[in-house]
Amino acid sequence: MTVVGIGARPGVSAAEVLAAVDAVLPAGADGVRLATLDARAAEPGLVEAAVARAWPLTGHPAAALAAVPVPSPSSRVAAAVGTPSVAEAAALLDGGTLLVGRTVVGRVTVAVAVGGAADPAAAPRGSRPWTR
């Protein structure tokens, strides 16, 4: 499974989201899912991007994301949304291994993790820290 964690500014378009995902998604990635902050999961651009590729989109509460150890925490992001990481934490939340760290493409921030639980509900929250 491949999880693309996404942080985005309000009003981001599907084209912007897909451009950012395409910039970091490894060729041949399978079982792709998108994950983000629950407050952003209903953003039209994120929803449209997920629908365009037939990828599931999951929103996680800020508290769950904040519990995930990440390599690139941001105090600015923490002040804005209540968690020091959205993209990396959302990618890692299901227990995967970080493949691509926080990458900013325009108004979208993405990160990629692989090998997590196929069912997000089955993964222990924040149980696997990021490793190089």
From TrEMBL:
Keyword Hydrolase among record annotations: yes
This protein's record includes keyword Mitochondrion: no
A GO biological-process term: cobalamin biosynthetic process
A molecular-function term among this protein's GO annotations: hydrolase activity
Keywords of this entry: Hydrolase
A Pfam family this chain is assigned to: CbiG_C
Domain CobE/GbiG C-terminal: 3-113
Name of the protein: Cobalt-precorrin 5A hydrolase
